[in-house]
Design brief:
The chain is α+β, with helices and mostly antiparallel strands. The protein has one domain. It is 43% helix and 13% strand. Strand 2 and strand 3 form a beta hairpin. 20% of the residues are buried.
Length: 83
């Protein structure tokens, strides 16, 4: 059941990530999905996006995962997930 349709926020989140495993700053992802974060901290942005990331991961093929990047406050789309 991993081929479910993504919601608007989930689709915006997924399209803000690159398929080449590039780290993307959480503020960039948040801005593309919800707009200007204003005074939100990186932690607040992560907390708001965490359920979206989880829902996307549940709907993606098993070889694709949104995961934390190598740099602090970044995320990436891992297209070679072996977990």
């Amino acid at each position: 059941m991993r081929n479910k349709i993504l919601s608007e926020h989930q689709q915006k989140t997924l399209t803000s990530l690159r398929p080449d495993n590039t780290d993307i700053d959480i503020a960039v992802i948040y801005t593309r999905v919800y707009g200007d974060p204003g005074t939100l901290s990186a932690r607040d942005m992560q907390m708001k996006l965490a359920p979206v990331f989880r829902a996307i991961n549940n709907k993606l093929k098993k070889t694709n995962r949104i995961e934390p990047g190598e740099l602090k406050r970044t995320y990436r789309l891992n297209t070679n997930y072996k977990g």
